[in-house]
Amino acid sequence: MSQNKPNSVKYAPIQHANVTFNALGIPIADQFDDIYFNNENGLAETNYVFLQHNGLPERWQTPRNTPFTIAETGFGTGLNFLACWDLFERTAPASQRLHYVSFEKYPMAPTDIAQAMAAFPHLSQYCQALLEAYPAPHAGCHRIQFHHHRVTLDLWFGDLHEQLPHWLPYAQQTVDAWFLDGFAPDKNPQMWQDSLYQAMAASCREQGTFATFTAAGSVRRGLQAAGFEVKKSKGFGHKREMLHGMLPTATPSVTPAARPDPGVPVTIVGGGIAAACVAWSLTQRGYQVHLLSEGIADGASGNAQGAVYPLLQVELSPLSRFHLSAFDHARQFYQGIGKPYWHGCGMVQLATQAKRLQRQQKLAEHGVYAPTMVTSLEADQTQQIWAELPAVPSLWYPSSGWVAPPQLVHHLLTQCGERLTVQQGVSIQAVTPTTDGGWRLTSEHGEEFHAHTLILAAGAGLLPLLQQWHIATEAVRGQVTQVAANSTSQECPVVVCYKGYFTPVLDSETACHCVGATYQRQFDPQHYRELAPEDTATNLAQLQSDVQQPWTHNLVPVADRAALRHTTRDHLPMAGWLSASLGIIGGLSSRGFTSAPLCAELLVSQWLGEPLPLSAELVKRLAPERLQDGEATLECAPYL
User: Fold this and answer.
1) How would you label 356-390 residue by residue, b for 16+ Cβ within 10 Å and e otherwise?
2) What is the dihedral of CA 549, 555, 559, 561, to 10 degrees?
3) Might you report a single GO cellular component term (predicted)?
4) What DSSP string runs through 556-594?
5) Which of 169, 262, 393, 446 sits most deeply, having the most CB atoms within 10 A of its CB?
6) Domain 345-400+474-567 CATH (choose: 3.40.50.150, 3.90.70.10, 3.30.9.10, 3.40.50.10860)
7) 30-34, 258-262, 362-366, 479-483: lowest mean pLDDT where?
8) What is d(CA 299, CA 521) in angstroms, rounded to the nearest whole number?
9) How far is CA 93 from CA 58, 61, 87, 145, in A?
10) Is residue 9 over pLDDT 70?
11) What is the pTM (predicted TM-score) of this model?
12) Mean pLDDT for the chain?
C-alpha cells in the first residue's frame, strides 16, 4: 500500500450519492448504475450473506473483554449496519459491545436513507437514531455512539483507498469480521483491489472472518493471496455463488498489547468537561475511575452557557478537519447522553469587520464545507434568521448550538454510575513516576496519591504539571458577563458570534444571556478570578459596536465570571499518551465543549488498542509531545 501514504491523501469535498428509486422502490446508485440491495429482499440477503456467513450471532455468545469489531466496505443505505445492530440488541449478552467501521465514498443523503429504509419498518427505531446523528459529508472518520456506548459506529467518508492508510496504522489486528460489500466488481473495479485485501488481512484478528455477495475470480484470488482461506457457498436468491472465509493466522508484524485490567482503577486529575468525557468513555467500557479534582466544573467549564461550533479555516486544513469530526461527534454525543443540556438552535457569525467579510467570501468561493455544517448568508438572509440582527453578511452554522456547562459536566459524571469515585478539594501540584510503573501525585497540602494509570485533564492546571516534560502551553484569562434579558433580546433564537458572542436566554426562569468573553494573556495568576469592571464594560461595548442594534444598549449586567482557558500555539488540542501509563488531554481553549468528547474517545481508544476515531495524521498532530521544546511549530492559518 506504499502508493497510498497518508500524507498523499487529497481532501476534496465529498459528494453525496446520486440516487434514484426503481419501480420496486429499490435505490439505485447513478454513479455505478447498480442497486444498493437485492430487488427481492435486501434484508434477507444481508442476513444470509453478511451475518450468517460471518457466524453471527453465535460468535457474540463467547465472553470477551474487547468490542466485537466489524469493518465494512460500502455503507450505502446503512442496511447492513442497522440489521447487525438489531440482531446484536436481540441476541448478544449485555456485557458485549459492538464496534462497526464502515467506509463510504459517496454517502447517501439522509432523505434517501429514510426513503430506502422505509421498506423495513421493524428497523425504524434504529434508522431514526442513525439519521439524528448522521454526520455532514466531509472526508475522514465520524464516530457515532448509540445505546450508552454499547454500539459504536465509525463512518469513514471518502475514497476507500485514500482512507485506509489513515485508518489501518491504528487498527491492526482489531477486526473480527469483514463485510465485503460495495457495488459489484464489474461496476466498481476501483474498490476491489489487492490493497483492500491486504488491509483486510492486516486489520484482522487471528481467525477473523469475511463474507461477500460476489464470487468473482479476481476477488477470490486477491483474498487468497492476502492469506485468507476462501470458500464458496450458494449465493442468495438467484445468485449462484458467494464467497466467505477466514484468516487462519493474524499478520505477525504487530503484537497487540494486553488489555488493561478493568479491576485496576484509572486515576483522572481534573473536574471539567475533558475529565468528565474521559471518565464517561472509560466507565462505559467497564473500567473503574478515581477522579481527583479541586472542584467539579469550577474552571473554564463553569460558565453558565457555552457555544458548541467548529473552528473552521478557509482551507480544509488539519485544524478544520479535526473540528469537522469533533463537532459532529460532540453534537450527536450531547443529543444522546447530554440531551437535557443541549440546545441545537444554530449559530450565526456576523461579518461585521472587513477581515471577517473577506474570509467569508473566500469560504463561499472555495466551497469545501457542506451546507449542513456552514452556509454563507447575504445581509437580508442574516435578518431572516432573526430580524433584530444587523443587515450584514454572515456565516450560518445550522447544526450548532449551546450547552449548560456545569449541569452537563455533573450529568456526565452521574451517568458514570458506581464505577466512578470522585474526591474533591484536591489540587495536584506534582506528578512523579514510581518504580512500579505508576505515578505518585502530591497535592498542595502534601497529600499523596498513587495511580497505576494516570490521565491529566485539568485544563490550565496542567501548566505546572507538564513542565517536567517541557510541554509548552499557555493560560489565557477570560471574563464572561451575564445580562438580564430585555423584551427584545429574550426573543433571540440563536447563538450570535462577532468578535465576542451572545447566547439565547439560559432559561425562562433565569432569563439571562451570556456576553463574552475577554481574552487576556497578561494577568496576575494569583488573582485571575477577581472580576474587573472594565472587562464587563468591554464585553458590553463589543456587543454594541459589532451588532449595532438598539436592543444591545439597555442590557443590564447581573453577574460576571472569570476563568482560564488552556491553549496551544497551533490551536489544536492535545490528546495522547506520554507513556503507557500517562495520558494527557488539554489545550481545548475556548471550544472545549466541541472538542472534549472526541479527544476523550481518542485517548481511551489509544489506551485500549481499539480503532481510533481520527486519521493517523490528525492523531499525530494532537500528540502532546509535538509541543515539547525544540519541536517544530505546526502551521497556524487564520480561522473563521
Assistant:
1) beebbeebbeeebbbebbbbbbeeeebbebeebbb
2) 10
3) cytoplasm
4) EEEEEEEEEEEE-TTS--EEEEEETTEEEEE--GGGHHH
5) 393
6) 3.30.9.10
7) 30-34
8) 17
9) 11, 7, 11, 18
10) no
11) 0.94
12) 92
Supply φ then ψ for residue 23, to 5 degrees: -60, -25
Q: Which three cell numbers stand for residue 504?
A: 439565547
Task: For residues 80 and 127, give the distance between their C-alpha atoms in angstroms, rounded to a whole number.
Answer: 11
The tens digit of pLDDT for each residue in 31-67 reads: 887 777 876 788 999 999 999 999 999 999 999 989 9
299-316 tens-digit pLDDT: 999 999 999 999 999 888
Mean of the pLDDT values across residues 314-329? 94
In contact, 612 and 575? CB cutoff 8 Å: no
| Cis amide prior to 563 (ω within 30 degrees) | no
Bridge partner residues of 516 (DSSP): 501
DSSP state letters, 427-451:
-EEEEEE-TTS-EEEEETTS-EEEE
Element (H, E) at 360: helix 354-366
Kindly report, residue by residue over 334-360, the tens digit of the pLDDT: 999 988 899 999 999 999 888 889 988
Q: Please give the pLDDT value at position 315.
A: 86
CA–CA distance, 602 with 624 (Å, rounded to integer): 13
Residue holding cell 455505478? 32
Q: What share of the chain is helix, strand, coil (3-state, %, to 5)?
A: 35, 25, 40
Domain boundaries, the chain: 2-6+42-247, 260-344+401-471+569-640, 345-400+474-567
Q: What CATH number does the domain located at 260-344+401-471+569-640 have?
A: 3.50.50.60
What would the grid cell of residue 92 be?
448478544
Give phi and psi for 13, each to the nearest 5.
Answer: -60, 145
As to burial, measured by CB atoms within 10 angstroms (0-12 exposed, 13-18 middle, 19+ buried), residue 283 is buried
- For domain 2-6+42-247, the CATH architecture is 3-Layer(aba) Sandwich (3.40)
User: Could you tell me the CA-to-CA distances from 555 to 20, 180, 497, 541 in Å, in that order?
Assistant: 53, 60, 17, 11
Percent of the chain with pLDDT over 90: 83
**Are 104 and 155 a contacting pair, CB within 8 Å?**
yes
For 593-618, b/e burial (b = at least 16 CB within 10 A) is bbbbbbbbbbbbbbbbbbbbbbbbbb
- Model confidence pLDDT, tens digit, residues 372-416: 999 999 999 999 999 999 999 999 999 999 999 999 999 999 999
Q: What is the DSSP letter of 270?
A: -
Q: How far apart are CA 472 and CA 625, in angstroms?
A: 9
Q: Is the pLDDT of residue 13 over 90?
A: no
pLDDT band at residue 256 using 50, 70 and 90 as cut-offs: low
Residue 335, CA distances (Å) to 128, 269, 329, 340, 400 in order: 13, 26, 10, 8, 11
- Quick count: other Cβ atoms within 10 Å of Cβ 577? 17
C-alpha cell at 520: 487576556
